[in-house]
Amino acid sequence: MEIIISQTAEESSVLAARVIARQVREKPDSVLGLATGSTPIRMYQELIRMHQEEGLDFSRVTTFNLDEYVGLPRTHDQSYYYFMQEQLFKYLNIPAANIHLPDGMAADIPAHCAEYEAQIQAAGGIDIQVLGIGSDGHIAFNEPTSSLSSRTRIKTLTEQTIEDNSRFFDGDETQVPRHCITMGIGTIMEARMNLLLAFGEGKAEAVVQTVEGPISSMIPASILQHHQSAKVFIDESAATKLKLKEYYKWVYAGKPEWQKDQ
Ligand code: PGA
Predict the structure, then answer these.
(1) Which mutation among 39, 141, 203, 224 tests ligand 1's pocket best, with the greatest number of atoms within 8 A of CB?
(2) How far is CA 257 from the centre of its chain?
(3) pLDDT of 161
(4) Roughly how many angstroms between the first and final C-alpha of the chain, as a whole number?
(5) Which atom in ligand 1 lies closest to the alpha carbon of residue 203?
(6) Is residue 249, in this structure, part of any structural domain at all?
(7) Is 223 contained in some domain?
(8) How many whole angstroms separate alpha carbon 98 and alpha carbon 162?
(9) Domains contained in the chain, number
(10) Is 134 close to ligand 1, i.e. is its CB under 6 Å away?
(11) N or C: which end of the chain has fewer CB within 10 A?
(12) pLDDT at 258
């Protein structure tokens, strides 16, 4: 794992966006795995800026999102489909046909999940997968004790996640769906690069367990220790519990510029 600590979430977001921009420039038909939640929003804004001001071209890019709530239509303002349109897609030039999210209204959920996996394969696999992390260590909606080799499937949200996400539903936990469709941990591990973002002290415990703890399904993100190319972008407050914090900073500071967005 490569741990990149910045003073602020703002700086982390810009650095992470540069990794994605380099990927898209080098391979214009890249396949990007995208995430929702509050964490990647600033990074998406930087990608939008690069598209608008620097001509970063997404016209051949394909995307697959990690997850979606079951039972929310795409028009619902808390559906992840809606979120992605509002936060990113409406500003970029990705063809609509290249954009994929699980369908929370699918009639046959197992068949839909299998089809989603097949679409990722048919696209050639994911080049860079963007990840947030839950305060309980989840990635996508793979909650603690999820199989570390799971595939796209329906999952039940934990009470903690429902509580965390209720802020998007006017603070009303009863409005948060109980189920979701999520890429599996096995699916995520097949991405050629994983790029995890975590900001704020509320993520510090999940971050230290992910980076320095034992690999365990109790902290699903810890499986990234097994990934050959996992970058973890965190701000100072998410880094407070890391034992080797100064070492990670020293390593990153010593990198040649060309290697920083590889
Ligand atoms: P957040 O969610 O970005 O809103 O903190 C991350 C997650 O639950 O995976």
Answers:
(1) 39
(2) 25
(3) 85
(4) 13
(5) 5
(6) no
(7) yes
(8) 30
(9) 1
(10) yes
(11) C
(12) 85
Whether 243 is in a domain gets the answer no
Q: Separation of 68 CA from ligand 1 center, angstroms?
A: 13
220 close to ligand 1 (CB < 6 Angstrom):
no
CA–CA separation, 12 and 241 (whole Å)? 18
Helix (H, G, I), strand (E, B) or coil at 228: coil
**Residue 255 counted as domain residue:** no
Ligand 1 centroid–CA 139 distance in Å is: 9
Does any ligand 1 atom lie closer than 6 A to the CB of residue 23?
no
Q: What is the pLDDT of residue 221?
A: 98
Tell which atom from ligand 1 comes closest to the C-alpha of 133: 9
Structure tokens at 150: 């799971």
pLDDT by 10-residue block (mean), the chain, 262 residues: 97 98 98 97 98 98 98 94 98 98 97 98 98 96 96 94 90 94 98 98 98 98 98 98 97 89 82
At 261 the pLDDT is: 82
At residue 262, the pLDDT reads 82
Ligand 1 center from residue 29 Cα (angstroms)? 27
Residue 81 and residue 71 in contact, taking contact as beta carbons nearer than 8 Å? no
For residue 93, the domain's CATH number is 3.40.50.1360
> What residue's CA is closest to ligand 1, atom 8?
134
CB atoms within 10 A of CB 11: 16
Q: Which residues are catalytic?
A: 67, 136, 138, 143
On the CB side of 73, CA atoms within 13 Å amount to: 2
Nearest atom in ligand 1 to 139's CA: 9
CB distance 133 to ligand 1 below 6 Å: yes
